[in-house]
Design brief:
heterodimer; A: 227 residues; alpha/beta; 6-stranded mixed β-sheet; 8 helices; 10 strands; 26% strand; B: 281 residues; alpha+beta; 4-stranded antiparallel β-sheet; 4 strands; 8% strand; elongated
Chain lengths: 227, 281
């Protein structure tokens, strides 16, 4: 069973069709790159994959459930199984980094006090142990991305979707983030990363078996040997 | 989860406080008119008086005849002639304690206690005219009926004012909650991104506004109670306005105001949050 499946999906916005006839299956434990020029619809496709958008045609299934049959609260429950890393991270700036990372635990009703050890371990894993009490605006671009990644994985989701996670960081930091994502994939997580950084994809492919999908002319296709 | 927003916080605190302050007075007005209506109502039910004014030798006979008439009159629970001592006590404020009532041509008074809807005064007057021509029915309390009615209406207005105050507070808190929800659209987006359900997000706002409503209303209620204490106490004449306030266990009533304010804040914020979250989907 695919964890996320798009079947002949189209998405229109403002009268124009942004994506057309998209079919995609994310198998458990798979690693995908999604690439394409800016404005091609990578972010839209990711949003379709975590139920933030409903296709205007076709079917989007999350864990074998059509998103059209889901109530808003059901989508929220699905999100706990899908970690999302945004390019702009989307933190609550009045909460500390640790509280932001623990946010998914809090909203799911889990006692964050019981998760302190896990949280500390996770912050150590992304190299932010010393920044736990800082506020998000005090973090550098790389630290913000790592914090966003930590927040995305704290619920131990089955799938991690990352939208340009290395967009605002230098090469070394982007490599460090990629290593974290590859490590998560080795733990069995399904990963899909939207990026226009082909060099990053090439570098990652030497460490992980990944499918590279390209959005071009509203459709998705398997990228060729040019990568 | 939700960052404190000064504008809506102060708006909620102020409106809850001001409304609670006004609610204390509306409640005091209702309770004062309640007491007034009860007092006048009791007096109305208690006292009609028959005065026997006749030549000295006929007073006793006419008194007995009038009592017989009263005993057979529907709507009268009891009737009795006042003793000399009682009449002396009644006259004492004007003539002093040593008035020789028995030697003066003072009319005999009969106290009438009504029951149920009272008696037919006109019918009674006609019967008394035949049996005891010196009897004058003085149903002096009947002029109080419209006053009791007015007091009841005033009490109703007091409770209506409380309802309107509650409604106005709900409207203001709803506006403040809407403003807070709009100002925190990004927070809501993030919470949804990490898997928060609508009930969780709404709860964050509801809890905050309920506590603000409770706090503001508590301060307003305390201020209102202190203000009622500064009003002049009931004077000897039993003046109505000077009787505005709380008496005895009625002081417990204002305790309900903060609780009701919190309930209003809870319900209005929850409705606003649900509506806004639905529109943001």
């Amino acid at each position: 069973m695919a964890v996320i499946e798009l079947e002949n999906v189209a998405y229109s916005y403002g009268g124009g069709e942004l994506l057309s006839d998209i079919s995609l299956r994310l198998q458990p434990g798979s690693f995908h790159f999604l690439t394409g020029p800016s404005g091609a619809g990578k972010t839209t496709l990711l949003k379709l994959c975590y139920g933030a958008l409903i296709p205007t045609a076709g079917h989007a299934r999350l864990f074998d459930t059509d998103v059209r049959t889901l109530e808003r609260d059901d989508v929220a429950l699905m999100r706990r199984r899908i970690g999302v890393v945004h390019q702009d991270c989307q933190f609550l700036d009045h909460l500390s980094v640790a509280d932001n990372i623990a946010l998914p635990l809090a909203v799911s009703g889990r006692d964050t006090l019981n998760e302190v050890a896990n949280l500390r371990e996770l912050m150590g894993w992304v190299g932010l142990k010393s920044r736990a009490d800082a506020l998000p605006p005090e973090l550098s671009g790389g630290e913000r991305q790592r914090a966003a990644l930590a927040r995305a994985v704290i619920m131990s989701p089955d799938v991690i979707l990352a939208d340009e996670p290395t967009g605002n960081v230098d090469w070394d930091m982007s490599q460090r983030l990629m290593r974290l994502l590859i490590e998560l994939n080795r733990m069995g997580k399904t990963i899909m990363i939207a990026t226009h950084d082909l060099a990053l994809i090439r570098a990652a492919k030497s460490h992980v078996q990944a499918r590279v999908l390209r959005i071009s002319n509203r459709r998705i296709q398997l990228a060729g040997a040019d990568l | 989860m939700v960052p404190p927003t000064g504008f809506t916080a102060w708006l909620t605190l102020f409106s809850a406080g001001a409304m609670a302050f006004l609610a204390v007075f509306a409640m005091a007005l209702s309770l004062a008119t309640d007491r007034l209506a009860d007092r006048w109502g009791e007096e109305l039910a208690r006292s009609s008086t028959l005065r026997i004014s006749a030549p000295q030798g006929q007073i006793q006979a006419q008194t007995e005849a009038a009592l017989r008439v009263l005993e057979t009159t529907p709507g009268i629970a009891s009737a009795r002639a006042l003793s000399d001592d009682e009449q002396r006590t009644l006259l004492e404020p004007w003539f002093g304690p040593d008035l020789p009532v028995e030697r003066l041509p003072i009319p005999r008074l009969i106290e009438i206690i009504e029951d149920g809807d009272g008696f037919d005064a006109e019918g009674l007057r006609l019967r008394l005219a035949a049996e005891a021509p010196g009897a004058v029915l003085d149903d002096h309390t009947r002029w109080r009926r419209p006053l009791v009615k007015a007091a009841s209406r005033l009490r109703l207005l007091g409770w209506l004012a409380l309802v309107l105050i509650g409604g106005a507070m709900a409207a203001m808190i709803t506006l403040a909650a809407n403003a807070a929800l709009a100002a925190n659209a990004q927070v809501i987006t993030v919470l949804r991104l990490v898997g928060a359900q609508d009930a969780y997000i709404a709860q964050a706002f509801v809890r905050r506004f309920t506590l603000r409503g409770l706090l503001g209303a508590t301060v307003g209620t305390v201020a209102g109670c202190l203000a009622t204490l500064t009003l002049p106490s009931t004077d000897i004449a039993g003046g109505f306005l000077t009787g505005l306030g709380f008496v005895g266990w009625h002081w417990l009533w204002p305790l309900l105001i903060p609780v009701m304010a919190a309930a209003v804040a809870f319900l209005s914020t929850r409705a606003a949050a649900r509506r806004t979250l639905r529109s943001m989907s």
